[in-house]
Amino acid sequence: MADSSATPSPASSAASPSESASPSGPYEPATSKHPARNVPDPGPLPKVAKEKSKAGQVAFIEHWFKEINYGFETGELRPHFKKLNDPECNFCKAVEDHLASAAEDKAWSTGGKLTFRNIRPTLKQLETDQYLIELDVLEEERHYYKNGHSEPVATNQEVDQPDTAVLLIRKNGHWLVGGYYADKN
After folding, report:
1. Where are the alpha helices (DSSP H) in the chain?
2. Which CATH architecture does the domain made up of 2-182 adopt?
3. pTM score, two decimals?
């Protein structure tokens, strides 16, 4: 498996924004003419996602992917996202850097939703308080746009990534993402 820190390609079981948020108008997905508008946020971390259990691992990973999808759809991550990651997570830093660069360029994307399936939680530790959770991830085709361009300035093809893994670290009674690893097809 290659460390996916160089190419952010996040994921989620159709980890779409929750209905609980209250945006200032109807949701509008991104188009070639404008970024997404009024995207509902993913909401708070579910209580079960704090548990040191397989259910806690699954709920945490589901929420983490919702946060990433939200970031790619809106062009910015919520401050909450950093609290979900270990400071040493290269992939997490790459996602933050990618979105900051896109914001500087006044760029946005369409598509690219990350969906996951078959999360395989485990309570078997790699090292003290480190758990490698395997899952399968599909990233939809993503098109990047900039103001003044009617055609995409870049495109990422759809990628199906079976055998992806998320490194979870248990610190101070909470889960943190320590890494995201995907086979490069």
Report:
1. 54-74, 80-83, 90-104
2. Roll (3.10)
3. 0.86
Q: Distance between CA atoms of 56 and 96, rounded to whole angstroms?
A: 25
Burial of 41 (0-12, 13-18, 19+ CB in 10 A): middle
Question: What whole-number distance in Å separates Cα of residue 130 and Cα of residue 10?
Answer: 20
Question: What distance in Å separates the CA atoms of residue 130 and residue 152, rounded to the nearest whole number?
Answer: 40
Listed by start position, the domains of the chain span 2-182
Full strand arrangement of the beta sheet holding 159-171: 2-3, 174-182, 159-171, 130-139, 114-120
161: Cα within 13 Å, side-chain hemisphere: 30
* Side-chain half-sphere CA neighbours of 109 within 13 A: 25
- 42: its two tokens: 């993913």
Q: Tell me the one-letter amino acid at 93.
A: K
Distance separating alpha carbons of residues 93 and 85, to the nearest angstrom = 9
Tokens of 63: 């929420």
pLDDT tens-digit readout, 9-39: 443 344 444 444 456 899 999 999 999 999 9
Express each pLDDT in 110-128 by its tens digit: 999 999 999 999 999 999 9
